[in-house]
């Protein structure tokens, strides 16, 4: 069953129950109010006649009361307290006699309702007690045929039936369009998710509302965009890996074919073997970095922290890389507060620093300075690595931490690298609960800033 039909049925049943309950409650209260109004009107007319009789109860007054009621839809019967009839507006029937002959209990001054059952009885009735100027007592009985009440209720039932049918019609029409309006975006979302499952990520779901449906539409649109980006990133990744592997493999195959020639002298053979060895090392390095990324993505690596004296740690890093910096005539400086300690995985975080310093070394010219500053600011440890290298173009900065992204699009073999170092750096920093940012200006240099919380 379609969701539009389900929603329509749910709306219909719920609204039908509410409307039926409301109509029944309203009908019952209108009928009750109408009957109560008729009884109070009867009682008021009886009390009015009583007031007249207490002033004057002569035959002309009695006749006038009877004559007046004979012209209305009510009837009056005036009796003495012993039941003897003094005046009637019409000939009385057995139903009236039966009511008159009922024993009466004490009658309050505002009168008494004798019969209120309009469904079963022929009349509804009230009685009022009067005492004339001579001290004689009697009763004023007022009657009204229940046929009039039943006719009113019959008309009321017709109006309620017509109103119910109209409400039912408009309810069905409203539910139809409402269910369509509600399910239309859901149907579009279903089609969109079906397209996503088939690999089509070019879905478009305009967000037309700020409610839950709008949020769901926005989430599906975001998912489609993310999947499209991931697919593009995967394709680029595979293309880049294919390119990175093809080049050294081509060198290895080509130079191995040359090296197999029997006419080749020993010096040339060794030269070609050196090239083959270099390219093999390049492939090995690429595979190591790929394995490192795969391990980080699957969260199968572990960060084992220990309390580290930062100055000693950076001094050991300095000793490892300083020969390479001196060889290229780049001055490497380290400034660190002696009082700083931080929980770190020495191996993993050392890998972060070596990657960043290796980049500074590759992209900086001779006679420049690379500076490492370690400071504590507002409870956080800030590590700045600043070089005076060629810098990073502004358009490339947002992407440099993506895997296989290289600022140098030519992929020069002289600079080395596969574009995965900074991706590994970012994930290792985040594994330590920190974050890394970069500022750079072409021709002036680059600053990488690592922020770690002091635990």
UniProtKB/TrEMBL annotation:
GO molecular function, one term: ATP binding
Protein name (database record): histidine kinase
Annotated ranges, domain HAMP: 180-232
Keywords per UniProt: ATP-binding, Cell membrane, Kinase, Membrane, Nucleotide-binding, Phosphoprotein, Transferase, Transmembrane, Transmembrane helix, Two-component regulatory system
Positions of the Histidine kinase domain: 240-455
Keyword Transferase set for record: yes
Species annotation: Cytobacillus mangrovibacter
Compartment(s): Cell membrane
Source lineage: Bacteria, Bacillati, Bacillota, Bacilli, Bacillales
Keyword Transmembrane part of the UniProt annotation: yes
Class in the EC hierarchy, top level: transferase
InterPro entries, A to Z: HAMP_dom, HATPase_C_sf, HATPase_dom, His_kinase_dom, HisK_dim/P_dom, HisK_dim/P_sf, HssS/ArlS-like, Sig_transdc_His_kin-like_C
